Amino acid sequence: MMKRPFLRAMPPYLPVLVILICMFALNGLAEPNSLSAYALKGLVSTYLALMFLAVGQTLVIFAADIDLSVGAILGLVNVTLVSLMQALGDTAGAIMLSMLLAVGVGAACGALNGVLVVILRLQAIVATFATSVLFLGLALFVMPVAGTPAPRLFWRTFGGRIAGIPFAYFVLAALLLMIFLLARSRFVQRLLTVGDDQLAAFQTGLPVNSIRVRGYIMCGVFAALAGLCITGDTASGDPNVGGLITLNSVAATVLGGAALSGGVGTLFGSVLGALVIGSVGSLVFFLGTPSEWQNLVQGLTVLAALMVGILFSGKARA
Amino acid sequence: MSGALKPILIAAGLVVLLMIAGETVSPGFASPEQILRLAIVAALLGIVAAGQNLVILGGREGIDLSVGGVISLSALVAGNVMSGSDAGLFPAILACVAVGAAIGLLNGLGVTLLRIPPLVMTLGMLGVVQGLLVVARNGIPSGRAAPVLSDFVSRPQWLGLPGILWLWLLIGLAMAGLLNRTVFGQRIFAIGANEGAARLAGVPTQLTRMMLYVLSGVFSAIAGLCILGYSGSSFANVGGQYMLSSIIAVVLGGTPLSGGRGGYTGTMIGALLLVVLQGLLTTLSIDESGRQIIFGSALIVLLLFYGRSRGLQS
Asked: Which residue out of B103, B125, B134, B292 would a mutagenesis test of the A interface target, given it has the greatest number of A Cβ atoms within 10 Å?
C-alpha cells in the first residue's frame, strides 16, 4: 500500500486519540458538567473493566488470534472472587488472597483457550465461543443466582479515595504503567512478530506456539483484572455480568488501531478505544437523547467511529 | 469427494448416537413427535445458518455477527405488520425480507467498498440493529403471529410434516443447486479460495461478496418470521442465541471459517446435531450450570473432530 511519509511517522493510536478528543469536546459542549472531576471519575471507574479487557484482547489479536470468551472469564472471576471473599472473611489479608486466587482462575481459563487454539489447533472464534459456554456454566455452578454482595471493605476501597485522589485513578495509573512496561517487553514484540507472519516467525526459530499460548494466558489474567474492577464497581456477584462486554472489547481493540489480522496495533490505543466507547455512552446521555433512542445513537456512533478508525489507520487489511 | 463427505458422516453418526442415548436415558426422547419438534427447532437454526454458510464460504474472514439482531428485528416487524391476521402475512413477508436485505446490503457495502473486516462491520451493525430494536419496541405493541404462520411452523401439514420442514428441505436443495450448478455458486467458491485469482479470471468479486451479505440478511429475516410463528408473539431479543450457534453449525457441518470449501448439506446436519445435543441436555434432569458445562465441553470435543488447521511443521 502506498503511504505518505507523514502517515508512516504518526503513532498508530493517533486516529483514536483524535476521536476521543472530539468525543470529550462534544461532551463538554453538550453539558459542561460532563467534564467535571466527578463525571470523569465515574466514567473511568465504570469503564476500567473494559480497558483491562481490551488490553487482554489486544494481546491475543497482536498474534492474529481472538478470544471471544473474555466476558465469560470476567463473569467467572467475578463470582469466584465474591464467593471466596464470603468464605474467607472480609479481612484485608483474606481479600488479597481471594483476589490472587481469582486472577489464577483467569490465567487457568486463558491457558485452556491457549491449549485448544494453539496446541490442538481449533479455530479461535469457535473454540473460544465453546469455552465461553463452559466458563458461563462454571460461573453458574459457583453462584447459581446473582446478588451475593461483596464485602464492604472491598467496594468501599474501590469507590473511595486515597489522599483525596479517587482509587480508580490509582488503578488506571497501574494499568498505564503495566502497558508501558508490556509495550517495551520482548513478549509483546514477539506476539507482534508472530501475528505479522507466523510462518516466517517459526522459520526464524521463534517458539511460536509457546508465545501464542502465553498471549492467551495473559489475556485471561487481564480479563480477571477486569473482573476485579467490575466487582468493585457493582459490589456484588453476577454470573451473567460479562454479557455484551466481549464484543465491546473487540470493538475497542479495533478502534485503537489494531488489525484483526495481527502484527499491528498498540495497547495504549486499545485503552483509548475503550474510553471512546465509554465517552460515546456518556455523550448520548448528556445530549438528552430520549432513553429509547440512546442505544441506537450509541450503536451508530460506535459503527461510525470504527469506520473512521479503520479508514484512517491506513491499515484497512481484512 | 470422500474428504468433503467425512465430516457430514461423522455429524450424522453422532446425531443417531445421541438419539439412541436420549431414548435410553429418557424413553420417549426419540418418539416421532419429539423428533418432529427437534427437527423444527433445527430448521429455524438451519435457515439462519444458510446465510452464515454463504458468507463464510466467500472467504476473506467472512462472518455475519448481525444475524441475531436481524432475526429479532424481522420477528418484531413481521409481528406488527400481520398483527395476528392471515391477510397480513404476505405484506409481512415482504417487509421483513426488505429489512433483512437492507441490513445485509449495508454489511456488504462496508465489507466490500470500505474494506472493513467482516467481523468488525457486522459487529458494529449488530449494535445498530439492537439500538433500532429498542426504538422500535418502544411505542408499538409486540406483534402476534398470523394463525396460518403458526400452523406452517408447528402443525403437520403435508405428508405429516409441517411446512417449515418442507421449506428447509427446499432451501437445502436450492443451496446445493446454487453452489454446485450455477455460475454464482462457482464464483462464491472462487472468491473464497483465492480472491485475487478470481478477479483476474473476470469474476465480479465485489458484487458477488456483496450479494452474500444480502442473502445472509434475507435468510435471517425469513428465520425471524418463522421464529415468530414458532413462539406466537415477538418478544425481546429472540435472535440473540443464533449468532454463534449458526457459526458453530456451519463449522460442525464441515465448512471451515477460512472459506472456499464446504457446502450446505453438512451445515444442515450440523444444525441437527446442535439441536439434538441441546435437546438431550434439556431432557436430563440436571441444573442450568451442569447443562452449560456439558454443552461447552461437548462443543470442544466436537470441534476436535473438525476444522483443525495445519500445524507449522507440516
From this structure: B292
Measured N-to-C along each axis, helices A92-114 and A70-88 cross at an angle, to the nearest 10 degrees, of 150
CB B250 within 8 A of CB B267: yes
Judged against a pLDDT cut of 60, whether residue B3 lies above it is answered with no
For A295, which of B134, B256, B293 is closest by C-beta distance? B134
DSSP lists the bridge partners of residue B144 as B233
Which of B293, B302, B304 should be substituted to probe chain A, the one whose Cβ sees the most A Cβ atoms within 10 Å? B293
pLDDT tens track for A89-101? 878 888 889 999 9
> Measured on CA atoms in the order B251, B256, B258, B261, is the torsion positive or negative?
negative
Average pLDDT in the B65-74 region?
A: 92
Distance CA A136, CA A74 (A): 10
Specify the length of chain A in residues: 318
Region for residue A277 given its phi and psi (left: phi exceeds 0; alpha: psi -120 to 50; beta: otherwise): alpha
Domain A11-29+42-313, CATH number (from 1.10.238, 1.10.3470, 3.30.590, 1.10.540): 1.10.3470
Q: Where are the domains positioned within chain B?
A: 41-247
What confidence tens digit (pLDDT) does each residue in B110-134 have?
999 888 889 889 988 998 998 888 8
